Structure formats: C-alpha cells, structure tokens
C-alpha cells in the first residue's frame, strides 16, 4: 500500500521502519529534514512538504507534537489537504484535543477526504518493536481500510468509537499513566529511605497486584536517578493538559491528574522537560532528601 508519513520524531521514525519492513511503500516528510535520512536509507522516499508526501498516497499518517502542529501539516499552506486525493484517508497518530480532531475531520470531509484519530501508547520501545497499543476513533469502514497498515505498527488495534474517541481514550491512558508513575516514584522513594535491596523489592512487588509497565520498565531509572529518553516529560504534561481540559468540559474534577501536571510543570521549569517521564521521581527524591548515590 502507498503510505505517506509526516512527522519523524522519537515515535515516527521507528514506525516508518516497521511499515517498510511490512512491505509498504512510504513517502515521508519532516520539518527538520535531517531526520529523514535514516528512514530514506532504509527505503522511504523523501518529499519536500506534507502536500507532496500525500500525493498518490492511499493512507496519510501524521504523527506530530500538538494540536497546532497537526492543523498546520494537514490544513496549512503546503498541507496534506492540498495533495490528498478524493477518497484518501488520513490517520492522525498524534495526541491532540478531541475537539480539534473533530474540526479537522469536518474540513477534510468537504473535500471527500476521510480521517481517523489513532493515538498510541507504548513508548519508544513499543514504536521500535511494533507493539504499540493503538486507540482509534472514526468510521468502521475507514478503520478497516487502515488496519493492515496499523497492524504493522501496533500489536493492539482497538476501534473505540466515532472520530475524537481515540483522543479521549488516549487522555484516559495519560491520566492512568500519571498516577502509576507517581505511585511507583513514591514507593521506590520509601524503599530507598528504608535502605532496602531495591532489586528484591521490585521483584517482589512486580510479581503481585502492583505490577505495571512503569514498574517493569522505568523503576531502574527512578532507583538510579537517571532518566534517558523514552517519552518526554513536556509531552506528557501537554497530554495531561488536554485531559484536564476535556474533563473540565464534562464538569469532572481530576485532582490527581491536576497535581501531577503541576509537578511536571515544575520539572519543565527546572530544565528537565526533555527527560523521560520517570523523571517525576526527581521531585519525590528531593522532597525526601534522597541523595543521588
């Protein structure tokens, strides 16, 4: 299948690699053109703009940072809308506002271009391994059209409802992640203060009801106070802001999510926004007077 892919960040580049490995023809574009090099060397075709990438593509995937970025690459000057043909399908795999998603979809429909929202969870590891969880909003027929492409990217592909429902589901995911990361950080802090053997602690609690992806994959970061990039703090803060805005529109208080968002704001202000999300353990360690040793 002819696929266009716009946005080659931490998630986008490995997703393109998996599409190429599955035998799809992939045209790519990225605002920072140097980031196209690795996927072009693997067989992707570089293009000069989102518009050019979308030309002759059956499915156009966008994976960029925030709502304004998605609007720009799809609807802006030299955007996808100017290159996509009638009957083509846009799959937005960014994490953005459900309302913005719905507004973009309405604009595209006026040109007989369909859209589904398909944000993902699973981090950079999942993107590399092709094991992402993909949560989709849109029409059933459009989801089925995209499924062969999405199955090259993720191991779990779930149609959760109409357009925008994928983004709302991703907001739920990020709320749960916020509580999980914060809880793991506090638990590890207690173990460190009590001077326990943390390898044995993680083995014990990770085999019971407290098991989680975060505990398995990010506890070492929190124990060692080192946070190599998996998913940026500043991107999770952006996602939580979307979740909280969605909750306000539904008159739903989310005190835990609001608290973690404020903690992430502090990390960003102190220069840690581009570290992995597990860096929220920095705050718990600091409050507890836990040294870096």
- The succession of helices and strands, N to C, reads EHEHEHEHEHEEHEHEHHHHHH
What would you give as the CATH superfamily of the largest domain? NAD(P)-binding Rossmann-like Domain
Output mean pLDDT.
Answer: 96
Largest sheet: 6 strands, parallel
Cα Rg? 20 Å
Q: Helical region count?
A: 13
- Architecture of the largest domain in CATH? 3-Layer(aba) Sandwich
Q: Widest sheet: strand order?
A: 3-2-1-4-5-6
Could you characterize what this model shows?
- The protein is of the alpha/beta class and 293 residues long.
- 51% of the residues lie in helices and 14% in strands.
- The strands form two sheets. Strands 3-2-1-4-5-6 form a six-stranded parallel β-sheet, with helices on both faces.
- The N and C termini lie far apart (52 Å).
Strand and helix layout:
Elements: E1 2-6, H1 12-21, E2 25-29, H2 37-41, E3 45-46, H3 50-54, E4 59-62, H4 67-75, E5 89-92, H5 98-109, E6 114-117, E7 120-121, H6 123-129, E8 132-137, H7 140-150, E9 154-161, H8 165-193, H9 198-205, H10 213-224, H11 233-249, H12 255-269, H13 281-288
Parallel strand pairs: 1-2, 1-4, 2-3, 4-5, 5-6, 8-9
Antiparallel strand pairs: 7-8
Task: Write a short abstract of this structure.
Keywords: NAD, Oxidoreductase. This protein is α/β, with parallel strands linked by helices and 293 residues long.
